[in-house]
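To illustrate the input format used throughout this study, we show a single complete record. The first block contains the structure-token representation of the backbone; no residue identities are included at this stage. The design step must infer an amino acid for every position from geometry alone.
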């Protein structure tokens, strides 16, 4: 066992006896954090920092898979939750917070005329697809991006074990920024598509008019356009990517940053479509759980009151400039690049001769984690990240990049790794 991560590894060994992979989430498991160089359990968080069970401190650029937009233990959110806790968590009838948070969403999000809540992003995307199928009377779905764990989507990926073939056959993937690819998918089954669901942006920036053309093409084929804003919502702009890019879908789904990490998600959209929620079955015992709704109300109020999204963009541009300069300085431009919206960016890694992208990513993780940076290849900024935190990350990159450069030059990354390299889970973007 490693000295730095001793307690994490002891707890992992214990967790594996009762929990598959030792975690409830693939992206937080040992599949994504190599044994020997990684922490596995976090004890607490404050602002943009977290502490693992061994007492190691990190500046967290994962931000709980982008669900933390304001920072861990944000005082306004925590105060709202504590106040609501005195009144209760769940009741036998709705609480007014359901209505009040829905009203905030309608006020902020361009497409939102009515709203229903779930707990996870997968709840919301699955609800939107069921709604689209009910509204159109059709079954096929075109997908672009990552949309959760439910059968209708995950069956189209390499992780499709347990999903019936008849369900898999109804989902059709298409490449981002390739309008011809979407056109071909829709034309292959004319009159059969209920919805096109897309992450409006992830790694790549949409080409000029791409999203507007996707909307027009979707409507031309009689389908509904769904923006999966599970991550882009409340990061790109208060009204999400649809506000940022000026394209309004029929439906949109939200999660993650909606409540600064508390478990709540939402389906929002046109009233004529959303009214069908009265007829389809989309119902949760905990859909109106009040602590998460209180957190959502406090989060959204802070987004309106303070320059949250503007600050994320400013910090992200500082990071983009710094990383781009470092890639050039260390002559790594053939293998590294920087992409994404400033609030949610990616260090894009390519295979090099003798050093695969997975070996390179593992090596960077090893070096960054050792320097107190929690990192999985993305920079999921939150409002608590300051200029000094960005500078710390850049300093860590400045020390890690020469090590990566030597691993590539020698073609022997194993000489630099203290663990087995990562293996791909499945390609989602």
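Output of the design step:
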């Amino acid at each position: 066992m490693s000295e730095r991560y001793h307690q994490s590894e002891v707890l992992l060994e214990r967790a594996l006896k009762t929990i598959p992979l030792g975690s409830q989430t693939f992206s937080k498991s040992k599949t994504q954090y190599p044994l020997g160089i990684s922490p596995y359990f976090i004890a607490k968080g404050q602002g943009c920092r977290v502490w693992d069970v061994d007492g190691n401190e990190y500046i967290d650029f994962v931000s709980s898979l982008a669900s933390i937009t304001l920072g861990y233990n944000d005082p306004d959110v925590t105060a709202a939750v504590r106040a609501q806790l005195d009144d209760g968590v769940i009741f036998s009838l709705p609480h007014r917070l359901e209505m009040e948070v829905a009203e905030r969403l309608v006020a902020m999000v361009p497409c939102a005329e009515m709203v229903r809540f779930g707990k996870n992003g997968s709840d919301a995307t699955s609800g939107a697809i069921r709604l689209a199928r009910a509204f159109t009377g059709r079954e096929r779905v075109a997908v672009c991006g990552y949309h959760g764990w439910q059968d209708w989507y995950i069956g189209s990926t390499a992780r499709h074990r347990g999903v019936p073939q008849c369900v898999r056959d109804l989902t059709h993937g298409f490449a981002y920024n390739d309008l011809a690819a979407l056109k071909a998918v829709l034309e292959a089954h004319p009159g059969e598509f209920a919805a096109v669901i897309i992450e409006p942006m992830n790694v790549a920036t949409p080409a000029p008019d791409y999203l507007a053309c996707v909307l027009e093409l979707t409507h031309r084929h009689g389908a509904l356009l769904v923006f999966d804003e599970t991550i882009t919502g409340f990061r790109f702009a208060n009204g999400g990517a649809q506000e940022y890019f000026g394209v309004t879908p029929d439906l949109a789904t939200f999660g993650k940053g909606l409540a600064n990490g508390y478990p709540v998600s939402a389906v929002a959209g046109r009233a004529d479509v959303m009214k069908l929620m009265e007829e389809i079955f989309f119902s949760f015992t905990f859909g109106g759980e009040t602590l998460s709704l209180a957190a959502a109300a406090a989060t959204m109020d802070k987004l309106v009151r303070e320059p949250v999204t503007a600050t994320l963009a400013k910090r992200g541009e500082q990071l983009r400039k710094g990383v781009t300069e470092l890639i050039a300085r260390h002559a790594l431009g053939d293998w590294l690049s920087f992409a994404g919206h400033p609030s949610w960016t990616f260090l894009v890694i390519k295979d090099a001769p003798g050093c695969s992208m997975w070996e390179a990513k593992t090596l960077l993780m090893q070096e960054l984690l050792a320097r107190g940076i929690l990192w999985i290849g993305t920079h999921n900024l939150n409002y608590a990240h300051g200029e000094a935190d960005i500078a710390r990350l850049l300093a860590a990159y400045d020390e890690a990049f020469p090590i990566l450069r030597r691993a590539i030059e020698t073609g022997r990354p194993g000489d630099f790794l203290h663990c087995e390299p990562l293996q791909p889970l499945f390609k989602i973007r």
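Structural context for interpreting the output: The chain has a mean pLDDT of 96. The CA atoms of residues 66 and 380 lie 5 Å apart.
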